[in-house]
Known about the structure:
The chain is an alpha/beta fold. Helix content is 44%, strand content 15%.
Amino acid sequence: xxxxxxxxxxxxxxxxxxxxxxxxxxxxxxxxxxxxxxxxxxxxxxxxxxxxxxxxxxxxxxxxxxxxxxxxxxxxxxxxxxxxxxxxxxxxxxxxxxxxxxxxxxxxxxxxxxxxxxxxxxxxxxxxxxxxxxxxxxxxxxxxxxxxxxxxxxxxxxxxxxxxxxxxxxxxxxxxxxxxxxxxxxxxxxxxxxxxxxxxxxxxxxxxxxxxxxxxxxxxxxxxxxxxxxxxxxxxxxxxxxxxxxxxxxxxxxxxxxxxxxxxxxxxxxxxxxxxxxxxxxxxxxxxxxxxxxxxxxxxxxxxxxxxxxxxxxxxxxxxxxxxxxxxxxxxxxxxxxxxxxxxxxxxxxxxxxxxxxxxxxxxxxxxxxxxxxxxxxxxxxxxxxxxxxxxxxxxxxxxxxxxxxxxxxxxxxxxxxxxxxxxxxxxxxxxxxxxxxxxxxxxxxxxxx
Length: 450
Ligand code: GLU
C-alpha cells in the first residue's frame, strides 16, 4: 500500500513499524495480518477546522485546528493536543499512529488519537493563550466527549491550557465530564499525572538496566534533551535515584554541566518556571557558571561520556551522526521520552550496537514514554467512579504498567524475532509487535477487518 509522500513524518512512523514486523516471523505465521496493517494505518476519521481568535491588539488571528481520530477498537480515542507552529496533518498522523500502539501497550481501554493547532504559544500573553484555547475548544467540542474522545496535553499544552479548554467545553456543552486529562487536582485531575511521562520513562529504564545486569541509576551519567514537562520530571526522578543529570535543552540551545557540575532539583525547578513563562533557557541564572550554554545545539555530541541518553524534546531529535557519537562515547541505554525522538538512521545505529559487543539498548517512545497516557487512563477511571486515588496508589499502578510494557516487549521479541545467543532482545520490535497484535486482534473481533 502506498502513502502520500506529502506526509514524511507519518511515512517514517509507518515504515518504522512495518520494518520491525517484516523482520519478525509475524507475517509468515499470520499472513492475514498484512490485511490488518492496511486497515489500521488509515485513520477512522480526521477533523480539520478553522480557529479564529483576537489578539491583544484587537487583530483577527487565524490558525488551523485538527483532531486525528485514528483508532477506537480498544476504547475512546485518546491522545494529546499539540500547539506548535510546525503542526500539520503529517505530524499529527504520525503522533496518532504511534499513540494507537502505545495506548494498547498500557493495557488500559484507550484508542489512539492526536490533535492540535499550528498556533505558536511563544511570545503570546496569558490572555491570548486563554482566548486561543477557548476558540479552539468551541470548534472541537462537538467531536469529543468522555466516551468518545479524550484529549490531553502535548507540546505547548499543559495544565493551564487544559484548564481553559475544559472550561470552554463545560460552558459550550453544558457538561462537567472527564473529557480531557491532565486536569487540575481540584477539578477532576489525577495525582502524579504531571510527573507520569518522566517517571514512567525512568521506571522503564530501571528495568532495562536491571535486565542487562548493569546495576541501577545510582552513579550513572544521564544526558537529557528538552526542558518541558517530560524532561523536567525525568531529570527529577533520575536525580532522586542517585544519577548525575548532565544536560537539558530547548529549541534555542542546550545547557551542558561542566566538570563536576550536575543539575539539582532547584535548577530543574528554576527551569520549569522559565518554561511556564514561555521564556528561553538563556534566562537560566547558572547559564554561564557551572553550565555551558551552547546556542542552537542539541546536547548529544556535547555531553561527552554518558551511560544513559533520554531524548525528551520532540521528534527526530537524534540523528545518525549523533547516535554514532553517543555509542562511541559509551552510551549503554537510550530511551525516548519524546515521540519518535530518533531518526530511523539513529535507531539503526543503536540496534546494530545492541547486536554487537557493546550491547547498547534502545527503547522506542511508544513503550518507554507510555507512562503519561497510562496515568491519563487512570485519571479517566477516577473520573468515571468520581473518586480520587492517593499519589501512592497511582504511582504503584504506573510502576506496574511500565513493568508490564517492558515484559511484554521482551516476550514478543523473544517469540517473533530471531536472535543470537546472549543478545539483548529488540525492544523496538517487541514493543511494536505487542501493540500491533493487541489492536488488530480487537479490530478483528469487532469486524473491522476479516
Ligand atoms: N501527549 C502524551 C503522549 O504523547 C499524552 C497523551 C494523553 O495523556 O492522552 O502520549
